[in-house]
Amino acid sequence: MKTLFPILLLLSSVIVVAVITPQLRAQAQQEPLGVMTYNIRYDNPDDAPNTWDNRKERVTNLMQLYEPAFLGTQEVLFHQLEDIDRALTDYRWIGKGRKDGKKGGEFSALFYDSRKVELVAGSDSTIWLSKTPGQPSKDWDAALPRVLTWGEFEVKSSGDRIFVFNTHFDHVGETARTESARIILDTIKKTAGDRPVVLMGDFNIVDDSKPYQVLTSSFMTDAIHTSDLPHVGPAFTGGGFEVQIPSRGRRIDYVFTNNAVEVLKHATITSFRNGYYPSDHLPVFAEIKVK
Asked: Which residues are in the Endonuclease/exonuclease/phosphatase domain (predicted)?
């Protein structure tokens, strides 16, 4: 009997491990991921007292507070990109300057938390929202070149794959915004198919516009409407630095997902100090999980 006892104990341990391991895997797959889109406002000296030097710490502190797995930024000049990169020590980023495909002009840089996710494809994947997406360019009635930055990522805790896209639409051209929406949907179809997708950015559109209708007419949905927890925060995201009540802002910054992603929470963040927001846009934060 004494010789059988260790064998029985070993067998029971194996059975327990066999039962627990799938449970642990299931729990790992349920781990939520934060996503944030944030137009940080380009470094404009005319914004005094809200110059970049006066507010960059507040911007990066807010990012560090929420610790999103994915952080889509807009209007980022290269020296601002360097400032954010220095502050977010556990993050990496991908993207190109929209002016020359290098360091020139604004970036729609996509930051990701290297502790949580790993980039597996898309390190060089910035395209222009134009008729010639492979080179710096603008078309239709766009005032400026606009870009889309994307990557495919693996979630370290579960092994799940997810595609994340970040963009900034033109602020003038209605046709350019509509065509940009079509380009992005086509890019998502070609690169991600029906796999999990998050699309975020400053779209410079409201939710009754044609570009919004294009974006939400097929396989992408506005996360504010699908969140398990009803939206928290105001209905506007862009309205200037100054805190105003009532606000004259509009909701122009969005997180969209496809049906392979569950949205758990959705919020517009209204952090401010001395009557001013850290940027002229409010960040939008969502908590998601891969289905």
From this structure: 36-281
Nearest partner of 279 among 51, 70, 66, 105, judged by Cα: 51
The confidence score (pLDDT) of residue 245 equals: 85
Q: 34-290 belongs to which homologous superfamily?
A: Endonuclease/exonuclease/phosphatase (3.60.10.10)
Two tokens, residue 67:
């610790």
- Contact (CB, 8 A) for 283 and 36: yes
Query: Per-10-residue mean pLDDT for the chain, 291 residues long?
Result: 46 43 51 97 97 98 98 98 98 98 98 98 91 97 98 97 98 98 98 97 98 97 98 96 90 98 98 97 98 95
Burial letters 106-118, b for 16+ CB under 10 A, else e: bbbbbbbbeebbe
Contact 211, 240 (CB under 8 A): no
pTM assigned to the model: 0.90
**How high is the pLDDT of residue 168?**
98
CA distance 291 to 289: 6
Q: In whole angstroms, what is the distance from residue 53 CA to residue 45 CA?
A: 10
Closest CA to 166 of 144, 184, 179, 154: 184
pLDDT of the residue at 16: 40
For residue 145, give every residue at least 6 positions away whose Cβ sits within 8 Å of its Cβ, in sequence order, or none: 98, 99, 105, 128, 130, 136, 137, 138
| C-beta separation of 70 from 116 below 8 A | no
40 CB-side CA count, 13 A: 34
| pLDDT value of position 4 | 47
Sequence-distant (≥ 6) Cβ neighbours of residue 92 within 8 angstroms: 111, 112, 114, 119
